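Lab channel / #folding
Pinned by the channel admin:
"Please post every new chain as: sequence first, then the structure tokens as a reply. Keep commentary short and put observations after the output so the thread stays searchable."

First post following the new format, from NK:
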Amino acid sequence: MNKRIASIDALRGIAIVMMIMASAIGWGAGLPAWMFHCQCPPPTYAFNFAVKGITWVDLVFPWFLFSMGVAIPFALGARLRRGESLGRISLGLVRRWLTLAAFGLVLGNAGLVADYHSWSACLLRFGIWCGLFLALWRVPARNSSTSLGMTINLAGVFIIIAMLFVERFVFGAALELHHIDIIIMVLSLVALLGGFAWLLTRGRLAWRLVILAVVFITKEVNWHTHALDVLAFPDWIDWLFRWSYVQYLLVVLIGTVIGDILMAASEAGPSAVCESPADSKTVIAAGLCFLMTPLSLWGFFTRHIWILLIAVFILGALAMWLTREDKSAWSIIMRIGFACLQFGIVFDPIDGGITKDHANISYMLSTAGLACLMTAFLLWCESRRPLSLNLTMIGQNPMVAYTVTGFVIMPLLYLVGFSAFDQLTVGNPLLGFLRGVIIVCLMVALTCLFTRRKIFWRS
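Reply from TO:
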């Protein structure tokens, strides 16, 4: 098997598609509550901490974090094999952290002007995206010279600064450090911490499990006592570093363990990834891995926790018994997934009900477990036949996919009169869902176009 595991790109691609779909569907179309964040139910969509449960929308962020964690051993391991020093790799991790943090800061302030009905606002958003494109573009080296790439990246930085000046002095937006894209800010910090954790514990799984246990215990104690509140950072820095960001390291560290398993298996050959994909027992077990996602979402959303606990235990035991002689990577990942999911369900009543905001241990373990199980299913699929090329290409270019909808597709659609279609979606669930499908398809098409032409952003 190719050293690049297509299943991880596909999982990341699935997360991005779900993310864009969740934001693009018609919010006034009368769609059911399970089509939105569980704690932001219709018709008001106001955040309500008292609501317990999760929907498919709540899987997006942890699945993306998990896939990032899986990629860490592959990315850093490749650099170590090339002979790069730990100092240079560490500097690269810090540089990536600061780049992503700056990216999150720009996105947060760019979001202050999001009036698609104004042609000037649409042009501003498109201009900011062009600046981001040039600033983050990994320009291919030509003739062993990096001067061209640096020039293009710097040009992008100047365009971004110019667009933010326009936003401030023409549109009157109040630009601040605390206007951030919270998703990107969390990603930036846990990528840094997860990278250092892997470097320190590579080849020493026990030590990584110790770090994971410390994060786990600290998170659970803080959930019930708020002990970390006394360690809050001052306002001038808490946009960049917050203790609440670090909790997501739990999902990333589980991802790095899966990444180590996959990296070793990919080097050993296809049979080490999935031993006998055509065997009927393997087929059934893979199907059960896939079934866990809709089953868990139903159980958590409807609050049938004890039914869910028993069902996952029985079906998980069946899947593991069917593959009891299978020692390949997908089988091991499946077992880790079932264990994490089972513990996540157990912690639901302990934590007072699973919630995404604020994220509790039940949420972290359950979503990480589901990510493992979906990865196991995708690995089985990949062993049978190539995965969807579109999904893998989206997963290879996540930052383009993340931004192209809000900064390119939506402005262009509204400039050509898409608002008329928006009016038709009000009170119409079918058209509201169709709205999301159209926008997702456009995102997929544009992202895949960039990926095919090998135009990638730093991420």
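NK: The chain has a mean pLDDT of 92.
TO: also worth noting, The chain has one domain: 6-112+175-452.
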